[in-house]
What does this fold into?
Amino acid sequence: MAADWELVHAERAALVELFGEIEGPQWEVASLCESWTVHDVLAHLASALDVSTAASVKAFVAALGRPKVLIDNLTRAYAVRSSAELLAIYARHTQSRFAPPGLGWKAPLTDVMVHRMDVAVPLGIDPARPPESWRPVLEFLTSGIPMLGSMRGGRPKVTWRATDLDWTRGSGPEVAGSAEDVGLTLAGRGPRIDALDGPGCDAVRRWLG
It folds into this structure.
């Protein structure tokens, strides 16, 4: 288990480095997360690890138990801080072992890997992360575990294959590409769909809509 959390910690540290290279107007660029800027994505990541238990419970009650509303509310609450302050907060928590109840270490790793792409793609940054870091994310995204309203539902029945990993999951027409592109698409983001190949891509395009 320690090695698994070590991967989460290493990928968080790498994400801190990426955010540290962002400057000025780049913070206000629209991310791949609907209605969130690059700054807002950092606010979300920082809030998820930094918010106190009492504040989290209060926010949960205010959101009437709706996970997506809870996430949005916490993000807005933290987004009033400067990008530098948010980055400092996130950097302090890179060694955290917090995970949503019942979801385990693959959930926070997925958060890191997908949100890195949410900011890197629109900014034209190559994250250059090892494909193996995506393996647990691909497993998590295809596990059938409820994503608490944070992922797009109704995913089509296709076979997903990562061409740079020995990894395949699903049934039906194939959708193949790099682990990074498959992972981003599985998370419901559309910008890398044209980098994928296979007869299942049309169904995925319709799903992304």
Remarks:
- The radius of gyration is 17 Å.
- The chain is about 50% helix and 5% strand.
